[in-house]
Amino acid sequence: MKISFIRMLGVFLLLIGLGFASFTHAEEPAAAAPAAAAATEAMPAADASAAPAPAASAAPAAADAPAPVVDKGDVAWMMVSTLLVIMMAIPGLALFYGGLVRSKNMLSVLMQVMMVFSLISVLWAVYGYTVAFGGEGPVIGNFSKLFLQGVNAASLADTFTPTVKLPEFVFIAFQATFAGITCALIVGSFAERMRFSAVLLFSVLWFTFAYLPVAHMVWGAGGYLLSKGALDFAGGTVVHINAGVAGLVGAYMLGKRLGYGREAMTPHSLTLTMVGASLLWVGWFGFNAGSNLEATSGAALAFVNTLLAPAAAVLAWCLGEALFKGKASMLGAASGAVAGLVGITPACGTVGPMGAIAIGLVCGFVCLWAVSGLKRLLGADDSLDVFGVHGVGGIVGAILTGVFTAPGLGGTGGAKPDEFLIATQVGIQIEGVVITIVVSAVVSVIAYKLVDMIVGLRVPEEEEREGLDITSHGETAYHQ
Question: Which CATH superfamily does the domain covering 69-473 fall into?
């Protein structure tokens, strides 16, 4: 028997409330340490030695260690970057997806993106942050900062420079936007046919058991892939491959839309899609360059690469369309831009500008094939080509990161330039890709099954024909 969504949501909120109540009535934590000793594990380049030392040995170490620096420019840049990533999701991704569906489902897509982003942002503060970035486990962190316990205005988070710190609240907000937009990306694969309650419940399960472990393995202190030396500057595995695989699994498990392959399902507004793609491109500068965590030359490298790679991918996609279809399309240009942005995401901080152009060109051609030829081979109705663009583009970008990071090809060489070997790094990158695919696929299958048992995955046939705007939300995007 299916459980009503309102009842399910009420139970969920009650559990959070009880947890918060137990936390607030627990014994008060010790007073926060001075800012100089409050550094916490943050991003992959953070030195483990920067973690707070035991109280007994803190005094001698503090005398020799340089005081941490919190630069106002870094703080301002990171807050702007966080705002840019929010703009990527709302309105960027929402409009990009909304323009691609039929007009009767426009509002349902906007609503799903906005609700999923909001839901995951709250869950990130409740338990996501501590599971992803607390502790030093190989797969997950710990629960030391559940409900952001112990985090205050004096708490600091690491950057790539051992002595430079950020307010921890800024780092928490920045990473929350990554989690939110990753879960929202999956919406495009099952657009126009999934129950609203099912979308939200699936997002909770997948975020908890797929996103958080992969994020910790790639970026968290002690993470397995980080320890292996995997390169993922801004989320090729964590965000794009992870979401793309979940989307493909969803497309299979929900089945094809009614009339798929027999009825025209053309985008209802390529104008909105172009606006959304443009907002995504602008916001992506915060996504990629912000992942440097400092307003330095490293951010400048990620910035220029985020300009060049999608530009090259637009050219490649449109050239491919002109050669094989006779005409270059606006939809192709917008899709090419996103494909290039996806491909450069893991590489933006470690490859040179020429490497970024090469990655963009390859992703443009490969993703064009993925949304046409590969999609037919797979036989799945991935409504808005989440796997074809984000999954395939993420895989290509992650592997090519291991190639173009080489100093001889204009890259930085990673942490140890003198020891960098393309074959070795590509092997590590492939391992990261495979682990991400397996984790996301297994979790997705289980999560979709559970959601189907609890609330049901797909809307009834008559509701799908009428459109989800009216049947799920009682509204219409356009009035005649």
Answer: Ammonium transporter AmtB like domains (1.10.3430.10)
Cβ burial of 319 (10 Å; 0-12, 13-18, 19+) is middle
Q: What's residue 59's pLDDT?
A: 42
Q: Measured between alpha carbons, how far is residue 458 from residues 186, 195, 469, 472 in Å?
A: 15, 5, 15, 12
**Would you give the end-to-end CA distance of the chain in angstroms?**
40
Whether residue 98 contacts residue 290, with contact meaning beta carbons closer than 8 Å, is answered with: no
Question: Can you give the residue ranges of every domain in the chain?
Answer: 69-473
344 and 398 in contact (C-beta within 8 Å)? no
* Cα–Cα distance for residue pair 112/185, rounded to 1 Å: 10
Work out the number of other CB atoms within 10 angstroms of the CB of residue 373: 12
**What pLDDT is attached to residue 64?**
66
DSSP for residue 189:
G
Give the model's pLDDT for residue 6: 47
Query: pLDDT tens digits for 110-135?
Result: 999 999 999 999 999 999 999 999 98
What confidence category does residue 35 fall into, taking pLDDT thresholds of 50, 70 and 90? Answer: very low
Under the phi-then-psi rule, with left for phi > 0, alpha for psi from -120 to 50, and beta for the rest, what region is 68?
Answer: beta
In the numeric block, which tokens belong to residue 261?
Answer: 């392959």
**pLDDT bucket at 40, cuts 50 / 70 / 90:** very low
pTM for this model (two decimals): 0.88
Write the pLDDT tens digit of every residue in 130-168.
999 998 999 999 999 999 999 999 999 999 999 999 999
DSSP 206-237: HIIIIIHHHHHHHHSTT-HHHHHT---SS-II
CB burial of residue 457 (10 Å; 0-12, 13-18, 19+): buried
From CA 89, how far away is CA 348, in angstroms rounded?
A: 20
Q: Is 412 exposed, middle or buried (0-12, 13-18, 19+ CB in 10 A)?
A: middle
Nearest Cα residue to 194 out of 134, 111, 82: 111
Let me know how long the chain is: 480
> How many angstroms separate the Cα of 78 from the Cα of each of 35, 170, 183, 351?
19, 7, 22, 22
The answer to whether the beta carbons of residues 443 and 74 sit under 8 Å apart is no
* C-alpha count within 13 angstroms, C-beta hemisphere, residue 245: 24
3-state DSSP call for residue 166? Answer: strand
Cα distance between residue 374 and residue 353, in whole Å:
29
DSSP state of 470: H
